[in-house]
């Protein structure tokens, strides 16, 4: 038997925003990824996660914490909102379960607006407004300067030359599992500070930066389409990193979980 050690957070119920007959199948992977993004942003990366879409009649969403596991049950009505709405929902519920301040950003705004069922143009202007907010990024680490790496990689790799170069910084809240994170809303990359160590080969750090730069190159399509983070095209480009096999082998040897990045 499991007992929740923190109260569950619950979003208010509302009516479905879309006609259920036109809704595409909700993808659990998208929801899992949204929660992992939220957990990375809130510094709760080391929790296990079980997130599922449910066919609720209303826009219900709950999150419960049992020890080191977070269990989310979310109405599949939220799937139609796209990634920003799902990350916003995950941020709201996760912050509340941990009794943290709920961040006011593009994601949570998208979530609140979706819940209020405002029009798509309202959503876009709200997203644009909140993009003005700045996060302080520190690219210079103890051993490596991330700006140098990005500068060199965008020069050296033909497939990155058309990229609008994102900002990059070290992430001190990434936990052990999340190596890198591309924040699409802010066009910023965060790299786990644990990679700024002498014992981590340079090509492993470079590979993680390369991977996140590819996320910046392949923005996720919003809307009703099923979202695939690592498309076949993405994976084919990723393999063009010259030391791809070596980097993967090092990560496997050192038992670095890459279940989400
Ligand atoms: Zn990835």
Report a brief summary of the structure.
This protein is of the alpha/beta class and 261 residues long.
Notes on the structure:
- The chain is α/β, with parallel strands linked by helices and 261 residues long.
- It has two domains: 6-130, Zincin-like, CATH 3.30.2010; 146-253, Metalloproteases ("zincins"), catalytic domain (Zincin-like), CATH 3.30.2010.
- The chain has eight helices and seven strands.
- It has helices spanning 28-41, 83-97, 106-116, 120-130, 146-156, 202-217, 232-238, 244-253, and strands at residues 6-10, 48-54, 61-66, 69-75, 167-171, 180-183, 188-192.
- The strands form two sheets. It has a four-stranded mixed β-sheet with strand order 1-3-4-2, covered by helices on one side. Strands 5-7-6 form a three-stranded mixed β-sheet, with helices on one face.
- β3 and β4 (69-75) form a beta hairpin.
- The longest helix is centred in the last third of the chain and has 16 residues, at 202-217.
- It starts with 5 loop residues before the first strand and ends in an 8-residue tail after the last helix.
- The model is unreliable at 1-8, 11-25, 118-123 and 222-226 (pLDDT under 50).
- Zinc ion binds at residues 211, 215, 229-230, 261.
- Zinc ion (ZN) binds at residues 211, 215, 229-230, 261.
């Amino acid at each position: 038997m499991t007992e929740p050690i923190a109260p569950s957070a619950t979003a208010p119920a509302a009516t479905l925003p879309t006609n259920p007959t036109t809704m595409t199948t909700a993808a659990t992977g998208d929801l899992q990824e949204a929660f992992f993004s939220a957990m990375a942003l809130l510094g709760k990366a080391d929790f296990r996660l079980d997130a599922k879409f449910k066919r609720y009649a209303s826009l219900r969403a709950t999150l419960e914490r049992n020890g080191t596991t977070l269990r989310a049950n979310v109405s599949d009505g939220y799937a139609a909102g796209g990634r920003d709405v799902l990350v916003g929902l995950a941020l709201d519920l996760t912050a509340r379960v941990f009794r943290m301040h709920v961040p006011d950003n593009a994601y949570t705004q998208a979530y609140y607006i979706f819940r209020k069922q405002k029009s798509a143009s309202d959503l876009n202007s709200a997203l644009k407004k909140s993009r003005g907010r700045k996060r302080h990024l520190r690219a210079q680490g103890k051993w490596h300067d991330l700006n140098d790496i990005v500068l060199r990689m965008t020069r050296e790799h033909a497939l990155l030359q058309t990229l609008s170069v994102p900002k990059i910084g070290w992430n001190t809240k990434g936990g052990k599992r999340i190596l890198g994170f591309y924040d699409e809303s802010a066009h910023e990359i965060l790299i786990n500070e644990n990679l700024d160590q002498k014992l981590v080969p340079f090509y492993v750090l470079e590979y993680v930066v390369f991977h996140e730069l590819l996320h910046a190159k392949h923005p996720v399509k919003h809307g009703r389409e099923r979202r695939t983070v690592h498309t076949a095209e993405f994976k084919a480009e990723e393999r063009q990193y010259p030391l791809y096999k070596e980097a993967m082998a090092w990560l496997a040897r050192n038992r670095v979980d890459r279940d989400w990045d």
